[in-house]
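Researcher: Good morning. I'm working through a list of sequences from a screen, and I'd like to move beyond sequence-only analysis. For each chain I'm collecting a predicted structure so we can compare shapes side by side. This is the next one on the list. No need for commentary yet; just the structure.
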Amino acid sequence: MEYSLPYLLIISFYLVLMVFNRFYQGVKTRNKIRFFCAFVFIIFFGCRGYIGSDWYNYNISYELTSWNEWLITDYEVAFSTLVKSLKFLGFNYFSIVLVITTFQVYLFDRFINKTCKNIILPYILLIALFPVVIIDLQRNFTSILIVMNAFLFLQRGNKRKYYLLILLAMLFHLSAVFFFFISYLNRVKFNTLVLNLLFVLGIIIYVLQIDFYTPILSVIENSVGGSIGGLINQVTREEEVGYGISVGIVEKLFLFIIIISKYKKVKQQNLLYVNFAVIYILIYLYFNTSQSFINRFANLFMFGYIWYYCFIFSNIKNKLYNFYYVLIIMFCLLRTSLSYNYEIYSYKNIIFEDEDYMHRIQIRVNHYEN
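Model: Good morning. Structure tokens for this chain:
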């Protein structure tokens, strides 16, 4: 609990805010809650120190970047342009993290405000279930958030703005290219028998830890090369390992069963997010032997997963509300305590204390050696 405690405290803040929101509602209250949720998230994660793992690579990239030279790592032009501009204006690495986090929170708030009745629960689920996304995947997370806002235009029939935003998302992270080809997910309802068969097969692959995709991806990597090949290489390395049997996978199995049991009754306006939740869980099952693949590809569909939990919560009957609320508290607190209980997540906020660069490097080295 030593390293998880700060994250448990911020989760507890949002949970208390949920209790408050149950008794005080209305447009003005909702807007105030939106502000508090966003502000606390920005202060907590936007002002973080050298937390997690990828800060090391982002920091090196910041030190090397300049307007005079474009490196091979600058192929995601929008992200690189943002960092180069901020550095040119005199911002340090921590200030850049703050600016990027603020932009992410703006996109997150815009999306959940239009798609979720409860705007507090998405923050809780995001923090509890996706620590790697928030802390380590700056480019990926920004790209995913742009994609989710793009789907808001697609649902209104505005394909032009949708594709323009997908193009922008690609300039933050190339993985967004997949959304050029799957825009149909907002109108396609899969066969439940097929989904059940895929689910059972996925469980077998997960339990037996079958790696069927590395040879296929290696062939693709050698064929395409370049930036796409580099992304594929990250998920085919020998040191890649799976998550194994955990609280998280048990919870995902139960959620998938709930989704499939209600799938035939899904309304058209909700189909996109339900399909995202289904795809997220299936990718998690089939590609579990590579944490990098899950972090970079399964998480492209993470908002369907978050949305579905919010949907359940918003439609729960009053007599079951307290039970579901307690269940959410227990689950999120458990996941938070487990997910962040590593020394690399030892929390520091640069507003209140300075960071020790060499000490953090040693923590990172020790983490990977162990």
